[in-house]
Amino acid sequence: MAMPDLRTADKTLLAGALQDARDYTISVLDEFAAWTDGVSVEGANSPDPLRVPCLAIINPPLWELGHVAWFMEYWCQRYRGEAAAPRPSRLPDADRWYDSVHVPHDSRWQLDLPDWDTTQRYLDDTLDGALGTLQALPDTDPALYFHRLALFHEDMHDEAFRYTRQTLAWPAPDELGDLPPARDITLPGGEFLMGSSPTGKGFFFDNEKWAYPLRVESFAISMTPVRNSDYLQFVEAGGYRQPHWWSASGQAWLAATGQTMPRYWRNKEGIWQQRRFASWIDLAPAQAAMHVTAHEAEAWCCWAGRRLPSEAEWEYAALHTPNFDWGTQVWEWTASAFAPYPGFSPDPYAEYSAPFFHTHRSVRGGSFATHERMRKPRYRNYYEPQRDDIFVGFRSCKAD
Question: Distance between CA atoms of 216 and 309, rounded to whole angstroms?
Answer without folding.
Answer: 11
